[in-house]
Amino acid sequence: MSSLAIEKLTKRFGASVAVDELDLSVREGELVALLGPSGCGKTTTLRMVAGFLPPSSGRVLFDKEEVTRLPAYKRATGMVFQSYALFPHMSAADNVGFGLEMRGLNAADRRKKVEDALKLVRLSHLAERLPRQLSGGQQQRVALARALVINPRIFLLDEPLSNLDAKLRAEVRLEIRSLQQRLGLTTLMVTHDREEALTMADRLVVMESGRVRQIGTPRELYDAPKDAFVADFVGRCNILAGRRESETQFRTGSGLLLPVDSATDECKDATAFALRPERITLQAGGGADGIQGRLKAVTYMGAQTEYVVAVGAEALVIVQSTPHADEPLAALKPGDMVSLDWDRKAPRLVPQALPRV
Amino acid sequence: MFLRLTDQPSLGRVLVRTLIAVAYLIIFAPVVMIVVTSFFAQEIISFPPPGLSLQWYANAWGKPEFFRGLSTSLEIALLAAAIGVPIGTAAALAIVRGEFPWRGGLSSFLLAPLAVPGVVAGSGLYMLYVMAEDFFDRDIKATTEGLVAAHTLLAIPWTVRLVVASLQGLDRRAEEAAANLGANPFTVFRRITLPMMRPGIVAAAMFSFIQSFENLDLSMLLVGPGRITLPVAMLNYLEFRIDPTLAAVATVQITLVGLLMVVTDRFVKLSRVV
């Protein structure tokens, strides 16, 4: 395994800039996820690392070795494609063996390694099947085995779970993550799914318009987003525009005063208040303390229940563990008065958008 | 599927089914008539037949022009497909994968022979061949080479059409995956692209063969003594006689083409390509 470094990587398509001076490093054995909306440049970045796209400028390095101009077939990366991209005319075993064949291994060594790789993804019994005779999840695992069997220098994942159904997704997510950790794979992953990114990555890179918005551990990004875009992208978030009134109060655009503790906040000229739905506590009835609001909607989601509460001209989303049937919260219905409260340190005061560095 | 939304036979369903049946009837009627008449005992075709016999098959068997026609047609169709399919495939690759400005023009140009009536194209080729004969001082009309060259013009557009379609439907990620696993561009083409194009190429070969094998109009002016294709031989026979011998020959022809389609379908599902 190698480490990966990307320096000032830029890709222009005509007049538009898909990736703009991106700097990023992935340590040996680390899984870094590029997260962002479609068109943010994350896939373009991955394709430049794989060698499918020539960068307009900048460098890509595996360990200290520059590979920027190396064609894809000489880079020894192992990529898992969104569509799996299995060879439709070859059996699962031949798909897995292809990379070994290209490396000149003889048939006997190849068979052994293919067997091991298929065992790793628990598909030994389906080795002779053609891709079209396999389910989506099985195809995905063949693609994984095919990319891993060549001992790639860098492991690349392009939206690896997006073609799987919800139940399978959780399963494959765990499987990929445990393989990655067990084998110590240096991994760059691309995804637009925040849950996938939060649960799998050691570090996250939130991208937008070809630029990095923020890099950090999932927890850093979730708890301490640098701007409203990141706050919104890594999880559900109540974002209210306004300005800081004092160290303890934030005034929203509609004039509502919200309690905060912004003494420690570096951002004195924040323009947005960001608060995660699960950090708000909700009580039935308009008590004396807390913020008064009127319940607009209740959505039962099984383990959790989501409430939408109108506070003045603003609306806040609150997610709580679903209350017991005999608790007063369980009887709440739209139109009821409620009171809200939160830890003063929970809200983040952030700029709407990060200024261009 | 939309026909099965309910189990109740509705008026619409009956109507659609009737239309389908009528369509099949219209398509198959001529073929069925030819096969049936080839077994009629009597020379002048009338209905109902006085009896059934295989005498017309025996008659056809005894006529060397049909035998020679069949072998000439097979030879030319095979050669035309063997030459036209690789050329058409290369052209299709250039049209789909190439990066040059006049790709659209090339595509229209190569499909053009489909738009020209065979007799017109045949006359044009005839005149071209006459001029070329003068220029090179050798025979071109009524030679195998001349006929193969003409029939290659049938194979190329069919191949371009079918292979372009199969290339457009091809997942390029599979090629990238191969490169990612260490295959150089030539290996990617040989091991991944070409096998994935195979259904299109096989279908193209079959259609090219059939187009050539059954061609009458383009060939009429280009045949000559000893180099007469089966359809032209049949037309020549028709000039002097009308009896079910032709129906017998046609039945053999239909059977050959039908067999070819069945065999091809075993390798590639034709419904997926065409």
Task: Give the topology, please.
The complex is a heterodimer of chains A (357) and B (274).
Chain A: E1 4-13, E2 16-26, E3 31-35, H1 42-50, E4 57-62, E5 65-66, E6 77-80, H2 92-102, H3 107-120, H4 136-148, E7 154-158, H5 166-183, E8 187-191, H6 194-200, E9 203-208, E10 211-216, H7 218-223, H8 228-234, E11 238-246, E12 249-252, E13 257-259, E14 272-275, E15 280-284, E16 291-300, E17 304-311, E18 314-321, E19 337-342, E20 348-350
Chain B: H1 11-37, H2 55-61, H3 64-97, H4 103-111, H5 118-136, H6 144-168, H7 172-180, H8 185-213, H9 230-240, H10 245-267, H11 270-273
Describe this structure in words.
With 357 residues, chain A is an alpha+beta fold. Helix content of chain A is 24%, strand content 34%. Chain A is built from 8 helices and 20 strands. In chain A, strand 7, helix 5 (166-183) and strand 8 (187-191) form a beta-alpha-beta unit. In chain A, helix 2 (92-102) runs parallel beside helix 4. The radius of gyration of chain A is 24 Å and the shape is globular. Chain B is 72% helix and 0% strand. Chain B has helices at residues 11-37, 55-61, 64-97, 103-111, 118-136, 144-168, 172-180, 185-213, 230-240, 245-267, 270-273. Chain B is globular, with a radius of gyration of 23 Å. The mean pLDDT of chain B is 89. The interface between A and B is medium-sized, with 28 and 20 residues.
